[in-house]
Amino acid sequence: MSAPDAVALPSNVAPGESVDVSVDLVAPLEAGAYQGNWKLKNENGDWFGIGPSGDSAFWVKIVIKQSITGTLTPSVSVTPTITTTLSPETQTPNIIVSGSANLSPNDTINLDNLFINSGTDDDLNYTIEEENQKLYLSPLSGVSLGVLVDSSPDYYTCQAMSLSNASLVLNYLNAGDNICFLTENSNYGYFQLVSLDPNNLKLTLQVTTWSTP
Question: Of the candidates 166, 180, 185, 213, which lies 20 to 30 Å from 98 by C-alpha distance?
Answer without folding.
Answer: 166
